[in-house]
């Protein structure tokens, strides 16, 4: 297997867009190709992550439509779905196709269009990634699942809810500097606690907003990467794991085995430990998710993630900067696009071009989680 | 109509699987025996204010996760009123009514 590097990245603004799902995908891909100085006809494989596009927009065959719109050749154009981890899966497939030698240039993208439909329909579409015979039948929603996690975490570790809401405060503070983000107005813990109770103890500001957006990345062999990009970023590892697809597969709700396993594989393959990660983009679909992820990835001990966030350790100048972009909570979570949006931020960090630059960042990690901890990707990247 | 809660216990790895499951979801064994469960401990819960499309009520409702034997978790709808404050760690009863799993204090 060959070493692979990211040579181009592109992203739309996240939030509410007038653009169609296809046009969002085209915009992000076009920007990534330009950033890599690679022509559309040079791309030999295309993977696109998307989760609820067909349900919410009625548009299927999205990978082919975006590929055709870009002017790609007669190449494999494949849509992949792993709920909110669809983008991470698309990136992994693109990396594998280059690593195996099948392609010299591959394009990975993620896209979602979620605005303009009633919230109840979006809630139902997202809940589609829970087991409808069991957890769906009792009225459980995605915020509901993490509301239960939130309660369990407080109960198990004796943590005050304010420590978990603090993640939203940090997120908005980061987002206020990042024009890609949807929600950029700073908030206080009191404002989080006064926001609408979506699924108690989760409040509106504990939840990522329903959003539109797309992001993309171009990958090629690491040994030729400098011919196309002055600041290539090497992929040290990318792992994908299967976890639980029902609540009854879980033994607890304050940790996700899919993350623990993916992190273990990714660290081993990269030959680095969690203490060597300079910056991380985690799957903070809800404040409590960032806390749990930060423990599952080994950045903090069990039960200490929320305290660490409250102490400022996850801030840009903290001991372990987490989601300097603003994360899903503030950038927005166009579900299929998030995995690539995280790569967009980590690559910018490792190029030294981020809006909330972590000083001297050399090694970065991205973590993308789908379903009830059903699918996870963890990738580790390094400045070349 | 009220029905008992059926689980499948794997005779190889001893883990419980909830139907629908043709094989053990932990090890794939077909060596299963059915057992019924009617109680557990409340692991955690949420009060949902934004229901999915087609949900019969617009007001809030409580969904809990109940821990049964060997640490197996099950999601269940709360049978009481939505402004109740169930206590985590307390004993609860489980039953099926119209194919929906309910828990009650």
Which secondary structure elements does this structure contain, and how are they paired or packed?
The complex is a heterodimer of chains A (384) and B (105).
Chain A: E1 4-11, H1 21-36, E2 45-49, H2 53-57, H3 62-70, E3 77-80, H4 86-99, E4 106-112, H5 119-127, H6 142-157, H7 161-175, H8 189-194, E5 199-200, E6 213-221, E7 233-242, H9 257-270, E8 279-281, H10 287-296, H11 305-310, H12 327-331, H13 338-351, E9 363-370, E10 375-383
Parallel strand pairs in A: 2-3, 2-4, 8-9
Antiparallel strand pairs in A: 1-6, 1-7, 4-6, 7-10, 9-10
Helix pairs in contact in A: 1-3, 4-13, 7-10
Chain B: E1 2-3, E2 5-10, E3 16-17, E4 32-37, E5 39-48, E6 61-67, E7 73-78, E8 91-97, E9 100-104
Parallel strand pairs in B: 7-9
Antiparallel strand pairs in B: 1-8, 2-3, 2-4, 5-6, 5-8, 6-7, 8-9
Secondary-structure element sequence of chain A? EHEHHEHEHHHHEEEHEHHHHEE
Q: What value does the Rg of chain A take, in angstroms?
A: 19 Å
Main pleated sheet of chain B? 5 strands, mixed, barrel
Shape call of chain B: elongated
The mean pLDDT of chain B is: 92
Number of domains of chain B: 1
| CATH-defined topology of the largest domain in chain A | Peroxisomal Thiolase, Chain A, domain 1
- Using only C-alpha atoms, the radius of gyration of chain B works out to 15 Å
**Which spans of chain A have pLDDT < 50 for at least 5 consecutive residues?**
none
**Structural class by sheet pairing and helices of chain B:** mainly beta
Order of helical and strand elements of chain B: EEEEEEEEE
Instruction: Figure out the total of helices of chain B.
Output: 0
Bin the helical content of chain B.
under 10%
Name the beta content range of chain A.
15-25%
